[in-house]
Amino acid sequence: MKKVYQFTLAIATIFVLIVSSSHLVFAQKHKVNIKGGPIPEKNWRDEAAAAQLGENHADVKDWISLWYGPDGNYENNGSFQVSGTRDLIDEGTNGKLTEPKLSTVEGLKLTQTVKMAWAKKHGGTREWDVFELEVANQDNMNRDGPADNIDTYVMCVINAPKDMKSVMSPAHDDWAQIWINGDKWYNDRTWTGGAQIVHYNIEVQLTKGANVVLYRCGESGGAAYLNLHFDSDTHRLCKIYPDKAKDQKSFFNEVRGVLAVDPTGKATSTWADIKQNR
């Protein structure tokens, strides 16, 4: 009887190991096909050399749906090919913010006092707010405004427990650009083919504490969507904000303890901030 018990226990152990291994393989999931970032400034507009994957990530449960950013789009952009080469954050704030600076703690904090004042024909003055984008909706960028010739900016803060590698997977229609902590990590002018279809899984570097992500997408006609998720380890280990916030005030209440400050109470500058202000 003892031998039967030991045999049964061994079989059960092997089964658990197999199941655990299969979950591990599943957790490692998607192939990383872009490494070596961030993108040097001289190459910010270059397309990735890697082959597009066209992966369907509809089964991923970690898509981010809650975002912080201007409460309306940049309108009448003249097509994403035209607008995508311009810094619309710089234009809307008269140089007080830029796309790289907005993707830093210092820039994020400035949104509490700096409004986005685009020309009336481009949507006019925008407030900073928290909003939700429906992940499965291929028109989630529209937000009750024009459906075509728009640019959308969204932001989130990733609170990492340590310096760590992470993998981000964007879906977009059309031209997507992503900055993290003042550096540009992603540039793809081509629509991905669906609201949860991904061309590239990009390895990025997160630092301990607050990591500010700025995601921009410009489109001309047809579907208009942007979506983003990170690898499962990042979603398991990190806290991503907005979490339960409903507006700007509650968003900053959520991230107050996450945003780094120096002993004088000022936001800690990153190397990107220093370069920006030289």
Highlighted features:
about 280 residues, Jelly Rolls, disordered N terminus, single chain, 3-stranded antiparallel sheet, 2 domains
Give the SSE layout.
Elements: H1 2-28, E1 55-56, E2 66-70, E3 74-75, H2 80-83, H3 88-93, H4 99-102, H5 105-110, E4 116-117, E5 125-126, E6 128-132, E7 150-160, E8 164-173, E9 175-180, E10 183-188, E11 197-198, E12 202-206, E13 209-219, E14 225-230, H6 232-237, E15 239-241, H7 248-255, H8 271-276
Antiparallel strand pairs: 1-11, 2-6, 3-7, 4-5, 7-13, 7-15, 8-12, 8-14, 9-10, 9-13
Task: Explain the overall architecture.
The chain is an alpha+beta fold. 24% of the residues lie in helices and 28% in strands. It is built from 8 helices and 15 strands. The strands form 5 sheets. Strands 3, 7, 9, 10, 13 and 15 form a 6-stranded antiparallel sheet that branches. The longest helix is centred in the first third of the chain and has 27 residues, at 2-28. The termini are far apart.
The biggest beta sheet reads: 6 strands, antiparallel
> What's the total helix number?
8
How far apart lie the N and C ends? 78 Å
How would you describe the shape?
globular
β-strand amount: 25-35%
Structural class: alpha+beta
At the first level of CATH, the class of the largest domain is Mainly Beta
**What is the third-level CATH name, the topology of the largest domain?**
Jelly Rolls
CATH architecture of the largest domain: Sandwich
Which percent range fits the helix content? Answer: 10-25%
Instruction: Give the overall pLDDT as a whole number.
Output: 87
List how many beta strands DSSP finds.
15
